[in-house]
Known about the structure:
Blueprint: H1 2-33, E1 37-41, H2 50-60, E2 67-71, H3 73-82, H4 87-96, H5 99-102, H6 114-120, E3 129-131, E4 135-136, H7 154-158, E5 171-177, E6 183-184, H8 191-198, E7 208-210, E8 213-217, H9 226-232, E9 236-240, H10 257-277, E10 282-284, H11 302-310, H12 313-316, H13 323-332, E11 342-351, H14 356-360, H15 373-384, E12 389-400, E13 403-412, E14 418-429, E15 433-444, E16 454-458, E17 463-470, E18 473-493, E19 497-514, E20 521-535, E21 546-556, E22 566-579, E23 582-592, E24 604-606, E25 620-622, E26 624-637, E27 647-659, E28 671-682, E29 685-694, E30 699-705
Parallel strand pairs: 1-2, 1-9, 2-5, 9-10, 11-13
Antiparallel strand pairs: 3-4, 3-14, 5-6, 5-8, 7-8, 12-13, 14-15, 14-30, 15-16, 17-18, 18-19, 19-20, 20-21, 21-22, 22-23, 23-26, 24-25, 26-27, 27-28, 28-29, 29-30
Helix pairs in contact: 2-4, 2-11, 3-8
Amino acid sequence: MALRVWGSRVLLSVCLCLTALTAAALMAEAAEERxxxxxxxxxxxxxxxxxxGVLLALRDLNIPxxxxxxxxxxxxxxxxxAVGRTxxxxxxxxxxxxxxxxxxxxxxxPQRTFRRKQDASGAFLPFEWGWRGRLVMPNGIIAGQKFSFxxxxxxxxxxxxxxxxxxxxxxxxxxxxxxTGELVAPEQGNLLKVVRASMSIPGxxxxxxxxxxxxxxxxxxxxxxxxxxxRMGAEKIIAVDVxxxxxxxxxxxxxxxxxxxxQKDVIVGRHSVVPVLREADFVIRPELEMNxxxxxRADDAIGPGYEAVMAQADALRPLALSPAAYAEHLARHSRxxxxxxxxxxxxxxxxxxxxxxxxxANIHQEVGRPLDLDRLKGDLLTIYxxxxxxLVDFSLEYTGPREARLTIHADEKYYAPHxxxxxxxxxxxxxxxxxxxxxxxxxxxxxxxxxAELRTESGQYANTIQPWYHDLRYRGDYKTxxxxxxxxxxxxxxxxxxxRAGLDYGYLHASDRTELPLTEGRGARGGWVAxxxxxxxxxxxxxxxxxxxxLRYRGDxxxxxxDRDFDQLEARLLRAxxxxxxxxxxxxxxxxxxxxxxxxHLMFTLGGLDGLTAFAGKQLRGQEYALGRLKWHHKIHGGxxxxxxxxxxxxxxxxxxxxxxxxxxSLRDLRYTGSVGVVVTTFLGPLTAAYGRSxxxxxxxxxxxxxxxxxxxxxxx
Length: 717
C-alpha cells in the first residue's frame, strides 16, 4: 500500500513537471513568435538627451528592444544601451556629464604646466592655425581628446571586436564617408571609435579614420537610420526623431551667421529624414524647446522624451510583454559584473616627431595591474598638452580572460610644427581714446628630442604710442619703439610656479610728442631681469577659485648702453572665490623704483579697465604705485557649448594711486573708484561695456572687444 502511494506521488510530480516545462516552452515559443522590435535613435545634438527618456518609458511599458541603430547623439545613447547599460544608469550618467569640460580638450588649468598656463592666459584667440607654405586651419574646432573617457564603460573599448551583433543588443552607428558621401554602418571593430565618427560634426570635430575611409557625422546621409535597423532584422521599428523642424527657428536668428548656418543644416536634414520616417512603424517626436547646441540643457530633454512615448502608450501596447516575460527578456540581455581588467602589456603607435620615450614617460599605468582610467585620462591629457598632437587616444585588445593589452595612439597635427596664434583687441573710452591692437605669435614646436620650442611674438608693445597726462590733463603722445632679446634660465616649481632670471638686451627709440620736456633718445639698453610667478587658479579666463601672483624685478645698467641705472620691483596677488553664480576677485598690487629714477616710458601707470576705471588709460603715472581691487561677476546666462554665449554683470571697487616722485608717496592720497558693467563672452574674446566714477568726480565709459593685451608688468611698456 505504501509503495503504491509513493508511486502515485512520483507520477503526479512528473506530470506537474512536464506541465510546467510545456507551459514554459509555449511561453518561449510565443515570445519567439513576437515581432522583433528595433529602436532607432536619431541625431540632434543636445536634443538627443530625449533618447534617455525614451528608454525609461519603454522600460516602464514593458516593451522589449531587440535591435538598436543610431546616428550622432543617438549613436552615443544607443551604444550605451547596446552594451548593457540600463536606462536608469544612462539617465544618471547624462545628468552628471560636465559638457563644458568635455568640449575642452586640455587638462584642467591646475594640471597644466606653468608654460601652458601662461599660453592660455595670453591675449590670443582660443584657436590656432598652422603653416605649411600657406596658412592652414585645423579640420575641427574640438579634437575630442576627452571623449574616450566620458562614458567609462569597458565594453565600449572591447565589446565590438567580436562584432556589433554580439553585443548585449545588436547595434549599428551610422557615419558618412567624407570622400564618397556614402552611408557607412560598420559591423565590427572599435565601438567607441565608430560612435566618435557618427557624431563628428564637420567643422566642429575632426573626421575619423576607419580603415581606408574618412568618416564624419551620419546626419549628412541618414539622421534617423530606419532602413539600417530594418536590414538588421527588425520587424517593428520605433523611430525617435529629435531633429528640430525648420519652422521651429526664431526668425531673429537669421540676422547672424550661426543662425543661418544652423537653419541651412536643418532644412537639408529634413529632406532626407521625412522619407525614411515613413518606413517606421512608430515615430516618437518629443516636444523640445531647445536648440541642438544647448548641451548644458541636455538632461532637460529627458522628460519630454519620456512623455512623448507615454503619449503613444496605447498604440505601442501591442508590443508590450507581460511583466514576467519582460523580466525574462531583460535577464537574457543583462551583463554580469566582469570585475577588473588587468593590463598585461603597454604598446605605442607613434605617428609624430616626439620620441617614444617622451610619450611613454608620461604613462603611469602599471603592467600587471588593473586598468586605471582616471590615471590614464590624466596621462593622455598631459601628453596632448605638448601642443603638437591632433589626438592622443588608446585602445584595448584582449590577451586572455579579463586581461588586455593597452596601446597608446599618438597622431600629429597636419600643420605641425609651426603654430600660429592671432589676437585682436578693440579698446574705446570717452575722451576720444581708441585703440585697435593686433598680435601674432609664432611657435616652432619640438625643435629637438627634449621638447624645446622657439617662439616669437609681435604686438603693440614693440611699437607703442602712449597718451601722456600731467596733472590729469592730456599733454600729447610719447612714442617708443623697442626690439628686445631675452635670455633666461628657469626653475619650474611643480606645475604651479616658475622662478627665472636672465639678461634683457635690446634697442630703444623714444620720441617726445608732448608739450612737456620728456627724455628722448635712441640706442642700446639692457640689464638683469628676474621673476617668481605662481598660478593655482582653476581657470585661465575668469577663474572661479584659487590664487595667483608674481614678484618681478628689472635692473637696467648703463654698462649695456642705456643712459642711466635704475631698478624696478613689482608684486601682485589675486584670490578668486565663487558662491553659486557669483565670482569674487580680490587683488592687491604695487611697485616701486627702489630709490632710483625710472625713465618716462617705464613709469608705472594706472587708469582704464585694468586699474582705477574712473580714469583714462595711463592717466595716472609715477615712480611708485599701489592698487587694491574688489571685483564681482554675476553670471546671468551661459551655456556649455563651444558656441554658447555667457553674460555677466560686473561691479568693482578700487583704491590706489601712482606717485610721480617717491618722496610724495602716501596712503592718504589714495583715489577711490567704483565701476559697473556687462561682460559677454564671444569667440573673439569678451565684449565689455563699463562705466567708472571716482569720489573726486572723474568718470570714464568703456567698450572693449577681445582679450586685452597687457605688459608683463605695469612698468614694462
